[in-house]
Design brief:
alpha/beta, nine-stranded mixed sheet, six-stranded mixed sheet, 28 strands, 26% helix, 22% strand, disordered N terminus, disordered C terminus
């Protein structure tokens, strides 16, 4: 990784001359040779582009920059040679924001943008640049933000059994069996990511009978991709003392078959008895997961993430990584409501370098649509119940809402079903009405609803009227819409994943991925937002393509509006002089390319706070 504070060298080795060398390009196109005279000493600044150097992808190019400072006195006046830490040229730059203008070059100094303009205008910046990079037409966006993800889980996914991408029930069971064979008797079989909605052939929830034959001597706990339901085996049920007579907990359910037998599929708070039995990970293990998660994110072009439910332990370890100079991107943290006490006492906090921002409380209300745990106003079309709420009860929530108002904290609430959305807005309003405005730390709250997948029209308007932000994940829609017609029926799909209707009402949407529930890929999220189609370009009945958003709005969903959602729209979220320098650079123009081409785009470079956090084919941050 290029650590903060250490990025002072050119992208390749410094040279004072350009003889032909093995491993270097034999022929080079000289872009500029500028003579600087100082006290009789001739110093040459050579900027040479070597597109033939095979160590570098063509989209990045090969820049050799040589600056030899031999005297403090130079003939070139300083105003004609402005200094910068990084100068990007030959680029296709979109500034984002409301105007979204286009440019060819930009300069960064001390972590902020100092120049944006044409290549011609950038020529005077070359002599004072510590590092110059030709992007050969690559597209530069304001830094992309994943507005809902779980960083530790992304890193953990690189080291444990990941069932993400398995496409049949049989393959999934086979993968689990192979993994379990490596686990000694008595130890837990752990993994994550199975998702029956993506399978070809039989689509049903896994049961303990699928895995019991090869896990008789070892307990198993394997969350579904959504993270709010899981498969456990018979051994785990015995260890937890869960029997067919055990009542369902508030905010959860032990699934049973028609004969009342436990199936091993557990939802919501019913997962806790098993989590409590699993041995705790070491700090070193969790810290490495955080490091790996950031490396994955930076390699995909994310410059910032909003972590929806990071524990204090994870936050402490993340802070250690910051002290070590190992932060690959910014992280906004919302702690889970069960751990909100210290935050309610101390208030929001931000690190002095702006890389860690602690300011929110994550609340959990209902389950997910796929597991039939989302709380609906009317019963599921394919089940005789309407989901569950009370993962957080009103009695638990209201004091936290009051504390958030008094201390200027944000509330990020997991709601998926229409009942959960409507009731949560009621609770927000009740808390606001109960506390005099004079006792609020600030009136501009910018509280959020996370996921908010089914929103009745009247509640869509309430989001606008209450200035509540919708935090939505486009990839959820193109996955869920494969089974949502069966869960909801076609009529309710008219208000499902209603992105464009919300924008038309003036509601701000912040886009995210919910990784590791989904892949955590900005290409997929952007594509899903503008097409509302499967990755193969198809769709189905009830998908409502008219609810897709424009490319410009999709860009704002991942740049400006996430910055707004955490009160940083004046600091980042678009490219303008004086703003913090976060950039996501791809070899494909998301605003003009065919949608399918977005899915195969390559990340060229990721810049965070003016530092290069990732370069294609050169980053040392790629997980082992």
């Amino acid at each position: 990784m290029v650590r903060h504070g250490l990025q002072r060298q050119s992208l390749v080795d410094t040279e004072l001359s350009m003889p032909s060398q093995p491993g270097r390009c034999a022929m080079a196109e000289k872009r500029e040779s500028r003579l600087i005279l100082s006290m009789g000493v001739c110093t040459v600044l050579k900027i040479l582009k070597c597109s033939a150097d095979k160590r570098w992808p063509a989209s990045v190019g090969c820049i050799v920059a040589t600056v030899l400072c031999v005297s403090a006195t130079v003939a070139v006046a300083q105003e004609d040679c402005p200094e910068s830490d990084l100068l990007l040229i030959d680029a296709n730059i979109y500034t984002g924001g409301d105007d979204n203008t286009s440019h060819e070059a930009l300069a960064i100094k001390d972590g902020v943008f100092s120049f944006i303009g044409s290549n011609d205008a950038a020529s005077r910046w070359v002599c004072g640049a510590r590092q110059v990079v030709s992007l050969d037409g690559s597209t530069v966006f304001p830094g992309f933000t994943d507005s809902h993800q779980h960083l530790e889980g992304i890193g953990r996914r690189t080291k444990t059994l990941s069932l993400f991408g398995t496409n049949t029930l049989e393959q999934t069971v086979t993968e689990i069996e192979g993994w379990a064979a490596q686990i000694p008797a008595g130890q837990w079989v752990l993994g994550r990511g199975w998702i029956e909605r993506e399978w070809v052939g039989e689509r049903r929830f896994l049961t303990r009978w699928d895995v019991d034959p090869f896990t008789e001597s070892k307990p198993l706990f394997m969350p579904r991709a959504d993270g709010v339901s899981a498969l456990v085996n018979s051994k785990a049920l015995i260890l937890a003392g869960i029997t067919r007579e055990t009542p369902d907990p508030a905010g959860g359910r032990f699934d049973r078959n028609n004969e009342g037998e436990l199936t091993g599929y557990v939802l919501g708070n019913a997962m806790e008895p098993f989590r409590n039995l699993i041995p705790a990970d070491t700090d070193a293990y969790v810290k490495d997961n955080l490091r790996r998660g950031m490396a994955v994110n930076a390699s995909r072009g994310w410059t910032s993430t909003h972590d929806a439910g990071m524990s204090w332990r994870e936050l402490r370890l993340l802070q250690e990584l910051r002290y070590e100079g190992a932060m690959a991107h910014r992280v906004y943290v919302a702690v889970p409501i069960a751990q909100a006490g210290p935050l309610l006492e101390q208030g929001a906090e931000q690190s002095d370098d702006g890389l860690i921002d602690l300011g929110g409380v994550k609340v959990f209300i209902d389950g997910t649509l796929g597991s039939r745990g989302a709380a609906l106003l009317e019963p599921y079309t394919d089940a005789n119940h309407n989901g569950f709420m009370n993962r957080t009860t009103k009695a638990e929530l209201m004091p936290v809402l009051e504390g958030a108002l008094r201390n200027g904290l944000q509330i990020l609430t997991h709601v998926i079903g229409d009942r959960a959305v409507s009731v949560t807005l009621d609770w927000y309003q009740e808390a606001w009405d109960a506390l005099p405005r004079g006792d609020w730390q600030r009136e501009d709250l910018r509280w959020r609803l996370e996921h908010a997948q089914i929103i009745p029209i009247e509640d869509q308007q309430r989001l606008h009227d209450m200035n509540v932000i919708a935090s939505m994940q486009p990839s959820h829609a193109i996955g869920d819409l494969n089974f949502a017609p069966a869960r909801l029926g076609l009529e309710r799909l008219q208000v499902a994943y209603p992105w464009r209707p919300l924008l038309e009402r003036g509601v701000k949407i912040v886009g995210g991925s919910d990784a590791p529930v989904e892949a955590g890929d900005p290409r997929i999220e952007f594509y899903a937002a503008i097409t509302r189609q499967r990755l193969d370009g198809t769709s189905g009945a009830g998908w409502h393509p008219e609810h897709a958003v424009s490319r410009e709005d999709a860009l704002r969903m991942f740049t400006l509006w996430p910055a707004y959602s955490i009160f940083h729209e004046e600091r980042r979220g678009s490219i303008s002089v004086g703003k913090q320098a976060d950039l996501s650079i791809f070899d494909t123009d998301f605003l003009r390319a065919k949608p399918a081409a977005i899915l195969t785009a390559k990340t060229v470079m990721t810049v965070v706070n003016g530092r290069i956090a990732y370069i294609a084919d050169r980053s040392t941050d790629t997980p082992d």
